[in-house]
Amino acid sequence: MHMYLFFFLLGRMAILNGLAFLIPLLCAFSWGEPAYLYFGPSMAVTLVLGGLMMGFGRRHSKQLGVAGGAWYMVLVWVMLGGVGMLPYLFSGALPVADAFFESISAYTTVGLSCAVGPAGDVPRSLVLWHGLMEWLGGLNFILLMVTIIPQVSGCFGLTLSVHQSISFSPMLGRMDIAARQVGKIYAAITVLSILAYLLAGLSLFDACTSAFRSISTSGDAPFSFMSGGNPALEWACAFSMLLACGNFLLYWKSFERRDLRSAFQDTELRVFLGVLLGTALLVSFHLWKMGVYDGADSLRFGFFHVLSFYSTSGFITADVSAWPDFDKFILLLIVFVGGCIGSATGGLRVMRFIVLFKIAAQEMRHLLHPRMVISLKVSGVPVDMKIISRVLSYFFLFMAVFFVSTIIISLSGMTPLQSMGVAAGCLTSAGATAHLFGVVEFSAEPAWLKAYCAFLMILGRLEIFSFLIVLQTAAQAFKRRW
Protein backbone atom coordinates (compact mmCIF):
# COMPACT_ATOMS: atom_id res chain seq x y z
CA MET A 1 0.00 0.00 0.00
CA HIS A 2 1.05 3.60 -0.57
CA MET A 3 1.03 4.45 3.12
CA TYR A 4 2.52 7.92 2.77
CA LEU A 5 -0.19 9.10 0.39
CA PHE A 6 -2.76 7.37 2.59
CA PHE A 7 -1.71 9.42 5.63
CA PHE A 8 -1.35 12.59 3.55
CA LEU A 9 -4.98 12.36 2.40
CA LEU A 10 -6.21 11.58 5.92
CA GLY A 11 -4.30 14.57 7.28
CA ARG A 12 -5.70 16.85 4.61
CA MET A 13 -9.26 15.83 5.47
CA ALA A 14 -8.56 16.32 9.19
CA ILE A 15 -7.27 19.84 8.56
CA LEU A 16 -10.34 20.68 6.44
CA ASN A 17 -12.62 19.62 9.28
CA GLY A 18 -10.41 21.33 11.84
CA LEU A 19 -10.78 24.61 9.98
CA ALA A 20 -14.55 24.05 9.88
CA PHE A 21 -14.56 24.39 13.69
CA LEU A 22 -13.74 28.05 13.13
CA ILE A 23 -17.29 28.75 11.89
CA PRO A 24 -19.19 27.72 15.06
CA LEU A 25 -16.34 29.15 17.17
CA LEU A 26 -16.73 32.64 15.69
CA CYS A 27 -20.52 32.37 15.80
CA ALA A 28 -20.36 31.41 19.48
CA PHE A 29 -18.31 34.55 20.19
CA SER A 30 -20.79 36.75 18.33
CA TRP A 31 -23.78 35.16 20.10
CA GLY A 32 -22.20 35.40 23.54
CA GLU A 33 -22.11 31.63 24.05
CA PRO A 34 -19.30 29.94 26.03
CA ALA A 35 -18.95 27.42 23.21
CA TYR A 36 -15.36 28.55 22.54
CA LEU A 37 -14.44 26.46 25.61
CA TYR A 38 -15.10 23.30 23.61
CA PHE A 39 -14.79 24.38 19.98
CA GLY A 40 -11.34 25.89 20.56
CA PRO A 41 -9.78 22.71 22.00
CA SER A 42 -11.58 20.59 19.38
CA MET A 43 -10.10 22.72 16.62
CA ALA A 44 -6.61 22.57 18.13
CA VAL A 45 -6.66 18.77 18.54
CA THR A 46 -7.95 18.21 15.00
CA LEU A 47 -5.45 20.57 13.35
CA VAL A 48 -2.53 19.04 15.26
CA LEU A 49 -3.67 15.54 14.27
CA GLY A 50 -4.02 16.59 10.64
CA GLY A 51 -0.65 18.33 10.64
CA LEU A 52 1.09 15.27 12.06
CA MET A 53 -0.46 12.96 9.46
CA MET A 54 0.35 15.31 6.58
CA GLY A 55 3.90 15.67 7.88
CA PHE A 56 4.28 11.90 8.02
CA GLY A 57 2.94 11.58 4.48
CA ARG A 58 4.84 14.48 2.91
CA ARG A 59 7.01 12.09 0.86
CA HIS A 60 3.97 10.48 -0.69
CA SER A 61 3.78 9.03 -4.16
CA LYS A 62 1.36 10.44 -6.73
CA GLN A 63 -0.75 7.31 -7.09
CA LEU A 64 -3.10 5.57 -4.65
CA GLY A 65 -3.45 1.80 -4.84
CA VAL A 66 -6.66 -0.19 -4.43
CA ALA A 67 -5.81 -1.44 -0.94
CA GLY A 68 -4.70 2.01 0.18
CA GLY A 69 -7.90 3.51 -1.19
CA ALA A 70 -10.02 0.97 0.67
CA TRP A 71 -8.19 1.58 3.95
CA TYR A 72 -8.53 5.33 3.46
CA MET A 73 -12.29 5.06 2.88
CA VAL A 74 -12.74 3.05 6.08
CA LEU A 75 -10.52 5.13 8.33
CA VAL A 76 -11.60 8.54 7.06
CA TRP A 77 -15.13 7.92 8.36
CA VAL A 78 -13.80 6.65 11.70
CA MET A 79 -11.49 9.68 11.97
CA LEU A 80 -14.32 12.09 11.12
CA GLY A 81 -16.51 10.47 13.74
CA GLY A 82 -13.72 10.87 16.29
CA VAL A 83 -13.03 14.55 15.65
CA GLY A 84 -16.70 15.40 15.19
CA MET A 85 -17.61 14.14 18.65
CA LEU A 86 -15.03 16.32 20.45
CA PRO A 87 -17.38 19.31 21.03
CA TYR A 88 -19.99 16.99 22.53
CA LEU A 89 -17.38 15.54 24.89
CA PHE A 90 -15.74 18.83 25.89
CA SER A 91 -19.16 20.41 26.51
CA GLY A 92 -20.39 17.43 28.52
CA ALA A 93 -23.52 17.26 26.35
CA LEU A 94 -23.16 13.54 25.58
CA PRO A 95 -21.16 10.56 26.90
CA VAL A 96 -18.55 8.91 24.66
CA ALA A 97 -20.78 6.26 23.04
CA ASP A 98 -23.59 8.73 22.38
CA ALA A 99 -21.20 11.41 21.10
CA PHE A 100 -19.55 9.02 18.61
CA PHE A 101 -22.95 7.77 17.44
CA GLU A 102 -24.17 11.36 16.99
CA SER A 103 -21.03 12.32 15.06
CA ILE A 104 -21.04 9.27 12.78
CA SER A 105 -24.76 9.70 12.14
CA ALA A 106 -24.17 13.31 11.10
CA TYR A 107 -21.15 12.66 8.88
CA THR A 108 -22.79 9.69 7.14
CA THR A 109 -25.98 11.81 6.78
CA VAL A 110 -28.18 9.16 8.41
CA GLY A 111 -30.12 11.50 10.69
CA LEU A 112 -30.54 9.25 13.74
CA SER A 113 -29.78 10.90 17.07
CA CYS A 114 -28.98 10.33 20.72
CA ALA A 115 -29.80 13.93 21.66
CA VAL A 116 -32.83 14.46 23.86
CA GLY A 117 -34.65 17.51 25.14
CA PRO A 118 -36.02 20.65 23.48
CA ALA A 119 -33.95 22.29 20.76
CA GLY A 120 -33.87 25.49 22.81
CA ASP A 121 -31.74 23.75 25.46
CA VAL A 122 -28.90 23.22 22.97
CA PRO A 123 -26.46 26.07 22.16
CA ARG A 124 -27.00 27.42 18.65
CA SER A 125 -23.31 26.94 17.88
CA LEU A 126 -23.64 23.21 18.63
CA VAL A 127 -26.69 23.01 16.35
CA LEU A 128 -24.65 24.78 13.66
CA TRP A 129 -21.80 22.30 14.11
CA HIS A 130 -24.23 19.40 13.73
CA GLY A 131 -25.40 20.86 10.42
CA LEU A 132 -21.82 21.47 9.28
CA MET A 133 -20.91 17.86 10.03
CA GLU A 134 -23.79 16.72 7.86
CA TRP A 135 -22.80 19.07 5.04
CA LEU A 136 -19.13 18.05 5.24
CA GLY A 137 -20.15 14.39 5.35
CA GLY A 138 -22.14 14.77 2.15
CA LEU A 139 -19.22 16.56 0.52
CA ASN A 140 -16.79 13.88 1.69
CA PHE A 141 -18.93 11.13 0.17
CA ILE A 142 -19.22 12.98 -3.14
CA LEU A 143 -15.44 13.45 -3.22
CA LEU A 144 -14.91 9.75 -2.51
CA MET A 145 -17.42 8.89 -5.24
CA VAL A 146 -15.46 10.73 -7.93
CA THR A 147 -11.92 9.98 -6.74
CA ILE A 148 -11.38 6.80 -4.72
CA ILE A 149 -14.53 4.65 -5.05
CA PRO A 150 -13.98 4.23 -8.84
CA GLN A 151 -10.52 2.79 -8.10
CA VAL A 152 -11.68 0.51 -5.29
CA SER A 153 -15.02 -0.66 -6.72
CA GLY A 154 -14.22 -0.45 -10.42
CA CYS A 155 -16.66 2.36 -11.31
CA PHE A 156 -19.54 -0.12 -11.21
CA GLY A 157 -22.39 2.08 -12.32
CA LEU A 158 -20.79 5.53 -12.29
CA THR A 159 -19.22 5.34 -15.75
CA LEU A 160 -22.57 4.36 -17.28
CA SER A 161 -23.93 7.76 -16.30
CA VAL A 162 -20.96 9.99 -17.15
CA HIS A 163 -19.25 8.05 -19.89
CA GLN A 164 -18.07 11.06 -21.86
CA SER A 165 -15.32 13.53 -20.95
CA ILE A 166 -14.92 12.11 -17.44
CA SER A 167 -11.82 10.14 -16.50
CA PHE A 168 -11.25 8.39 -13.19
CA SER A 169 -7.63 8.06 -12.20
CA PRO A 170 -5.66 7.00 -9.11
CA MET A 171 -3.25 9.87 -9.80
CA LEU A 172 -3.40 12.52 -7.08
CA GLY A 173 -3.43 15.44 -9.55
CA ARG A 174 -6.47 14.16 -11.45
CA MET A 175 -8.20 13.30 -8.18
CA ASP A 176 -7.74 16.91 -7.06
CA ILE A 177 -9.19 18.25 -10.33
CA ALA A 178 -12.30 16.06 -10.05
CA ALA A 179 -12.69 17.02 -6.38
CA ARG A 180 -12.53 20.74 -7.18
CA GLN A 181 -15.11 20.40 -9.96
CA VAL A 182 -17.62 18.54 -7.81
CA GLY A 183 -16.89 20.74 -4.79
CA LYS A 184 -17.86 23.84 -6.76
CA ILE A 185 -21.15 22.27 -7.82
CA TYR A 186 -21.86 21.16 -4.24
CA ALA A 187 -21.21 24.69 -2.94
CA ALA A 188 -23.31 26.30 -5.68
CA ILE A 189 -26.28 24.02 -4.98
CA THR A 190 -25.96 24.78 -1.27
CA VAL A 191 -26.17 28.52 -1.99
CA LEU A 192 -29.32 27.96 -4.09
CA SER A 193 -30.84 25.99 -1.22
CA ILE A 194 -30.04 28.74 1.30
CA LEU A 195 -31.71 31.30 -0.97
CA ALA A 196 -34.79 29.10 -1.27
CA TYR A 197 -35.10 28.83 2.50
CA LEU A 198 -34.60 32.57 2.92
CA LEU A 199 -37.42 33.20 0.45
CA ALA A 200 -39.57 30.79 2.46
CA GLY A 201 -39.18 33.03 5.49
CA LEU A 202 -36.39 31.44 7.54
CA SER A 203 -33.68 33.42 9.29
CA LEU A 204 -30.14 33.20 7.91
CA PHE A 205 -29.09 30.78 10.66
CA ASP A 206 -32.06 28.45 10.12
CA ALA A 207 -31.71 28.73 6.33
CA CYS A 208 -28.06 27.67 6.49
CA THR A 209 -28.58 24.73 8.83
CA SER A 210 -31.63 23.58 6.85
CA ALA A 211 -29.71 23.83 3.57
CA PHE A 212 -26.83 21.82 5.06
CA ARG A 213 -29.27 19.03 5.95
CA SER A 214 -31.15 19.14 2.65
CA ILE A 215 -28.19 19.16 0.26
CA SER A 216 -26.33 16.47 2.20
CA THR A 217 -29.61 14.45 2.39
CA SER A 218 -29.10 14.04 6.14
CA GLY A 219 -32.72 14.79 6.86
CA ASP A 220 -34.68 15.48 9.97
CA ALA A 221 -32.08 15.88 12.69
CA PRO A 222 -33.37 16.40 16.26
CA PHE A 223 -33.26 20.19 15.93
CA SER A 224 -35.35 20.86 12.84
CA PHE A 225 -37.77 23.48 11.57
CA MET A 226 -39.89 20.92 9.75
CA SER A 227 -42.31 20.30 12.64
CA GLY A 228 -43.88 23.69 11.87
CA GLY A 229 -45.73 22.33 8.83
CA ASN A 230 -45.18 25.45 6.73
CA PRO A 231 -45.99 24.71 3.03
CA ALA A 232 -43.46 27.33 1.84
CA LEU A 233 -40.69 25.59 3.78
CA GLU A 234 -41.77 22.26 2.35
CA TRP A 235 -41.46 23.65 -1.18
CA ALA A 236 -37.98 25.00 -0.38
CA CYS A 237 -37.00 21.66 1.14
CA ALA A 238 -38.39 19.70 -1.83
CA PHE A 239 -36.47 21.94 -4.24
CA SER A 240 -33.26 21.32 -2.29
CA MET A 241 -33.78 17.57 -2.09
CA LEU A 242 -34.41 17.35 -5.84
CA LEU A 243 -31.13 19.13 -6.51
CA ALA A 244 -29.32 16.81 -4.11
CA CYS A 245 -30.67 13.70 -5.87
CA GLY A 246 -29.02 14.47 -9.19
CA ASN A 247 -25.66 13.29 -10.50
CA PHE A 248 -23.14 15.98 -9.60
CA LEU A 249 -20.81 14.99 -12.43
CA LEU A 250 -23.74 15.34 -14.82
CA TYR A 251 -24.37 18.82 -13.42
CA TRP A 252 -20.75 19.69 -14.10
CA LYS A 253 -20.90 18.42 -17.68
CA SER A 254 -24.07 20.41 -18.34
CA PHE A 255 -22.49 23.53 -16.85
CA GLU A 256 -19.33 23.16 -18.93
CA ARG A 257 -21.36 22.76 -22.14
CA ARG A 258 -23.77 25.55 -21.16
CA ASP A 259 -26.57 23.11 -22.00
CA LEU A 260 -28.85 22.25 -19.09
CA ARG A 261 -31.26 20.41 -21.40
CA SER A 262 -28.67 17.68 -21.93
CA ALA A 263 -29.05 16.68 -18.28
CA PHE A 264 -32.68 15.73 -18.89
CA GLN A 265 -31.64 13.42 -21.72
CA ASP A 266 -29.88 11.22 -19.16
CA THR A 267 -31.62 7.85 -18.79
CA GLU A 268 -31.03 7.60 -15.07
CA LEU A 269 -32.48 11.05 -14.35
CA ARG A 270 -35.57 10.28 -16.44
CA VAL A 271 -36.14 6.99 -14.64
CA PHE A 272 -35.62 8.72 -11.28
CA LEU A 273 -38.24 11.37 -12.07
CA GLY A 274 -40.66 8.78 -13.47
CA VAL A 275 -40.42 6.57 -10.38
CA LEU A 276 -40.80 9.64 -8.16
CA LEU A 277 -43.97 10.75 -9.95
CA GLY A 278 -45.54 7.30 -10.08
CA THR A 279 -44.80 6.43 -6.45
CA ALA A 280 -45.93 9.82 -5.17
CA LEU A 281 -49.25 9.52 -7.02
CA LEU A 282 -49.75 6.00 -5.67
CA VAL A 283 -49.13 7.02 -2.04
CA SER A 284 -51.20 10.19 -2.38
CA PHE A 285 -54.14 8.28 -3.86
CA HIS A 286 -54.00 5.66 -1.10
CA LEU A 287 -53.84 8.30 1.65
CA TRP A 288 -56.91 9.96 0.14
CA LYS A 289 -58.71 6.64 -0.41
CA MET A 290 -58.17 5.61 3.23
CA GLY A 291 -59.45 8.97 4.46
CA VAL A 292 -56.18 10.00 6.12
CA TYR A 293 -56.22 13.42 4.41
CA ASP A 294 -58.38 15.29 1.94
CA GLY A 295 -57.32 15.50 -1.71
CA ALA A 296 -55.03 18.53 -1.44
CA ASP A 297 -53.25 17.38 1.73
CA SER A 298 -52.89 13.85 0.33
CA LEU A 299 -50.99 15.24 -2.66
CA ARG A 300 -48.97 17.61 -0.46
CA PHE A 301 -47.88 15.06 2.14
CA GLY A 302 -47.66 12.18 -0.32
CA PHE A 303 -45.34 13.93 -2.76
CA PHE A 304 -43.18 15.48 -0.05
CA HIS A 305 -42.59 12.30 1.92
CA VAL A 306 -42.02 10.11 -1.13
CA LEU A 307 -39.36 12.58 -2.29
CA SER A 308 -37.96 12.78 1.23
CA PHE A 309 -37.53 9.02 1.56
CA TYR A 310 -36.58 8.49 -2.10
CA SER A 311 -33.73 10.97 -1.67
CA THR A 312 -32.82 9.22 1.63
CA SER A 313 -33.17 12.59 3.36
CA GLY A 314 -35.95 11.61 5.72
CA PHE A 315 -37.53 14.99 6.44
CA ILE A 316 -40.88 14.41 8.13
CA THR A 317 -43.75 16.91 8.23
CA ALA A 318 -46.54 14.57 9.34
CA ASP A 319 -47.01 11.64 11.70
CA VAL A 320 -46.00 8.97 9.18
CA SER A 321 -45.93 6.31 11.91
CA ALA A 322 -49.75 6.61 11.97
CA TRP A 323 -50.10 6.13 8.20
CA PRO A 324 -51.54 2.89 6.77
CA ASP A 325 -49.06 0.01 6.58
CA PHE A 326 -49.17 0.06 2.77
CA ASP A 327 -47.83 3.62 2.61
CA LYS A 328 -45.20 2.99 5.28
CA PHE A 329 -43.85 -0.02 3.39
CA ILE A 330 -43.73 1.95 0.15
CA LEU A 331 -41.59 4.56 1.94
CA LEU A 332 -39.42 1.80 3.42
CA LEU A 333 -38.87 0.12 0.05
CA ILE A 334 -38.09 3.29 -1.87
CA VAL A 335 -35.11 4.20 0.34
CA PHE A 336 -33.36 1.12 -1.06
CA VAL A 337 -33.49 2.71 -4.52
CA GLY A 338 -32.08 6.11 -3.56
CA GLY A 339 -31.17 8.91 -5.93
CA CYS A 340 -28.92 9.05 -8.96
CA ILE A 341 -25.44 7.62 -8.83
CA GLY A 342 -22.91 10.40 -8.30
CA SER A 343 -25.15 12.15 -5.76
CA ALA A 344 -24.95 12.41 -1.97
CA THR A 345 -27.96 10.13 -1.52
CA GLY A 346 -27.78 6.64 -0.07
CA GLY A 347 -29.37 3.41 -1.20
CA LEU A 348 -28.44 1.22 -4.14
CA ARG A 349 -28.98 4.08 -6.66
CA VAL A 350 -31.21 4.25 -9.70
CA MET A 351 -28.50 3.34 -12.23
CA ARG A 352 -27.85 -0.01 -10.61
CA PHE A 353 -31.55 -0.85 -10.60
CA ILE A 354 -31.67 0.02 -14.29
CA VAL A 355 -28.85 -2.47 -14.88
CA LEU A 356 -30.62 -5.11 -12.75
CA PHE A 357 -33.89 -4.72 -14.68
CA LYS A 358 -32.05 -4.88 -18.01
CA ILE A 359 -30.28 -8.05 -16.87
CA ALA A 360 -33.66 -9.61 -16.03
CA ALA A 361 -35.12 -8.53 -19.38
CA GLN A 362 -32.09 -9.92 -21.20
CA GLU A 363 -32.48 -13.30 -19.50
CA MET A 364 -36.16 -13.42 -20.47
CA ARG A 365 -35.21 -12.85 -24.13
CA HIS A 366 -32.62 -15.61 -23.89
CA LEU A 367 -35.28 -18.00 -22.63
CA LEU A 368 -37.42 -17.26 -25.70
CA HIS A 369 -34.51 -17.05 -28.17
CA PRO A 370 -31.56 -19.10 -26.81
CA ARG A 371 -29.31 -18.37 -29.81
CA MET A 372 -29.88 -14.62 -29.86
CA VAL A 373 -26.81 -12.49 -29.07
CA ILE A 374 -27.95 -9.54 -26.95
CA SER A 375 -25.77 -6.65 -25.85
CA LEU A 376 -26.86 -4.97 -22.63
CA LYS A 377 -26.78 -1.19 -23.05
CA VAL A 378 -27.64 1.80 -20.87
CA SER A 379 -28.04 5.19 -22.56
CA GLY A 380 -26.55 3.60 -25.68
CA VAL A 381 -23.42 2.51 -23.80
CA PRO A 382 -22.57 -1.22 -23.77
CA VAL A 383 -22.34 -2.56 -20.22
CA ASP A 384 -19.20 -4.58 -19.57
CA MET A 385 -19.61 -8.02 -17.99
CA LYS A 386 -17.37 -6.89 -15.12
CA ILE A 387 -19.85 -4.14 -14.27
CA ILE A 388 -22.78 -6.57 -14.48
CA SER A 389 -21.00 -8.97 -12.14
CA ARG A 390 -20.22 -6.25 -9.62
CA VAL A 391 -23.73 -4.82 -9.65
CA LEU A 392 -25.19 -8.29 -9.00
CA SER A 393 -22.63 -8.94 -6.26
CA TYR A 394 -23.28 -5.59 -4.64
CA PHE A 395 -27.04 -6.11 -4.67
CA PHE A 396 -26.67 -9.53 -3.03
CA LEU A 397 -24.22 -8.27 -0.40
CA PHE A 398 -26.36 -5.24 0.40
CA MET A 399 -29.50 -7.30 0.95
CA ALA A 400 -27.60 -9.98 2.90
CA VAL A 401 -26.17 -7.35 5.26
CA PHE A 402 -29.64 -5.84 5.65
CA PHE A 403 -31.30 -9.11 6.67
CA VAL A 404 -28.47 -10.18 8.99
CA SER A 405 -28.47 -6.74 10.60
CA THR A 406 -32.22 -6.91 11.13
CA ILE A 407 -31.72 -10.10 13.15
CA ILE A 408 -28.82 -8.62 15.15
CA ILE A 409 -30.70 -5.40 15.96
CA SER A 410 -33.74 -7.39 17.09
CA LEU A 411 -31.57 -8.79 19.92
CA SER A 412 -31.83 -5.37 21.57
CA GLY A 413 -35.54 -5.91 22.18
CA MET A 414 -36.88 -4.02 19.17
CA THR A 415 -39.76 -5.50 17.21
CA PRO A 416 -38.99 -7.05 13.79
CA LEU A 417 -40.44 -4.01 11.99
CA GLN A 418 -38.45 -1.59 14.13
CA SER A 419 -35.30 -3.65 13.51
CA MET A 420 -35.93 -3.52 9.75
CA GLY A 421 -36.45 0.23 9.90
CA VAL A 422 -33.23 0.84 11.84
CA ALA A 423 -31.16 -1.50 9.63
CA ALA A 424 -32.52 0.07 6.45
CA GLY A 425 -31.95 3.57 7.80
CA CYS A 426 -28.33 2.93 8.75
CA LEU A 427 -27.44 1.20 5.47
CA THR A 428 -29.22 3.64 3.16
CA SER A 429 -28.46 6.84 5.13
CA ALA A 430 -32.20 7.41 5.63
CA GLY A 431 -32.64 7.27 9.40
CA ALA A 432 -36.29 8.29 9.12
CA THR A 433 -37.18 4.70 8.24
CA ALA A 434 -36.76 4.01 11.96
CA HIS A 435 -39.33 6.75 12.66
CA LEU A 436 -41.84 4.87 10.50
CA PHE A 437 -42.06 2.22 13.20
CA GLY A 438 -41.74 4.39 16.29
CA VAL A 439 -37.97 4.55 16.91
CA VAL A 440 -37.33 8.26 17.43
CA GLU A 441 -34.02 8.52 19.31
CA PHE A 442 -31.27 6.21 20.55
CA SER A 443 -30.26 7.62 23.93
CA ALA A 444 -31.85 4.74 25.86
CA GLU A 445 -30.49 1.98 23.60
CA PRO A 446 -27.57 -0.22 24.76
CA ALA A 447 -24.02 0.83 23.87
CA TRP A 448 -23.42 -2.27 21.73
CA LEU A 449 -26.40 -1.38 19.53
CA LYS A 450 -25.12 2.18 19.05
CA ALA A 451 -21.70 0.80 18.09
CA TYR A 452 -23.21 -1.69 15.62
CA CYS A 453 -25.46 0.95 14.06
CA ALA A 454 -22.44 3.26 13.69
CA PHE A 455 -20.66 0.40 11.91
CA LEU A 456 -23.65 -0.05 9.58
CA MET A 457 -23.70 3.68 8.80
CA ILE A 458 -20.05 3.56 7.76
CA LEU A 459 -20.57 0.30 5.84
CA GLY A 460 -23.40 1.88 3.86
CA ARG A 461 -21.14 4.75 2.82
CA LEU A 462 -18.30 2.35 1.96
CA GLU A 463 -20.40 0.56 -0.67
CA ILE A 464 -19.41 -2.69 1.15
CA PHE A 465 -16.60 -3.68 -1.27
CA SER A 466 -14.11 -1.36 0.41
CA PHE A 467 -14.71 -3.04 3.75
CA LEU A 468 -14.22 -6.48 2.19
CA ILE A 469 -10.89 -5.36 0.70
CA VAL A 470 -9.79 -4.10 4.12
CA LEU A 471 -10.70 -7.45 5.69
CA GLN A 472 -8.81 -9.31 2.97
CA THR A 473 -5.63 -7.23 3.28
CA ALA A 474 -5.76 -7.45 7.09
CA ALA A 475 -6.12 -11.24 6.91
CA GLN A 476 -3.20 -11.50 4.48
CA ALA A 477 -1.03 -9.35 6.74
CA PHE A 478 -1.96 -11.52 9.73
CA LYS A 479 -1.02 -14.70 7.83
CA ARG A 480 2.35 -13.26 6.78
CA ARG A 481 3.10 -12.25 10.36
CA TRP A 482 2.14 -15.56 11.95
Automatic annotation (TrEMBL):
The chain crosses the membrane at residues 36-57, 69-90, 141-162, 183-205, 232-250, 271-288, 329-348, 394-414, 420-440, 452-475. GO terms for molecular function: monoatomic cation transmembrane transporter activity. It is found in: Cell membrane. The keyword NAD does not apply. InterPro entries: Cat_transpt. Keywords: Cell membrane, Ion transport, Membrane, Transmembrane, Transmembrane helix, Transport. Pfam families: TrkH. GO terms for biological process: metal ion transport. The keyword Cell membrane applies. One of its GO terms (cellular component) is plasma membrane. It comes from the Bacteria. It is a multi-pass membrane protein. PANTHER family: TRK SYSTEM POTASSIUM UPTAKE PROTEIN, TRK SYSTEM POTASSIUM UPTAKE PROTEIN TRKG-RELATED. This is Potassium transporter.
